[in-house]
Amino acid sequence: MAGLVPLNRRNGGGLARTGAGFEDFYNMIDDFFNDGLMPGRNLSRDSFKLDIVDKGGEYLIEAEMPGVGKEEIELGVEDDNLTISLNRTEESGKDGKNYIHRERRSASVSRRVRLANASLADIKARLADGVLSVVVPKEEKSRSPRRIDID
Predict the structure, then answer these.
(1) pLDDT tens digits, 15-57
(2) Cα separation of 75 and 111, whole Å?
(3) According to the model, what pLDDT value does residue 25 have?
């Protein structure tokens, strides 16, 4: 199986051209299995890359999201968890009514990060140059021992 090559890509075309129209058919079949609207990255198979840095007084979370608009990103907080979700619908094809081929794809990716001692009420987020930066300040929790009275 490792030696298999798609028909339209073998030796500059590969399949003997016996009839008109079959070339487009084979290209369409190959593109169905190999083509991606985001070359090199497919959100249905891949997740966005995530880096978390402890900067002492705050956490810096950076998520790589090239080509994504901020209206496609959703940030949420639940308990001690920050959730970053990406919902994307992609559409390609011709704009006319008599199109031969048209595709639609929808993908949803979500990452959840648990942050200890975080002040989740003061989170700030910014999307620039394909990188979502989320700054989460830390809150100081008392570590001093305390006495508990027994009733």
Answers:
(1) 444 555 566 666 666 666 555 544 544 444 567 899 999 998 9
(2) 10
(3) 65
Strand 124-128's sheet: what is its strand order?
50-54, 58-64, 131-137, 124-128
| Residue pair 25/7 in contact by the 8 Å Cβ criterion | no
Looking up tokens 């990188």, which residue turns up?
131
The closest of 38, 92, 91 to 65, measured between CA atoms, is: 38
Cα 39 from chain centre: 13
Q: Find the DSSP H helices in 1-151.
A: 22-34
For 120, the token pair is 């989740």
- So what's the pLDDT on residue 10? 45
Determine the length of the chain.
151
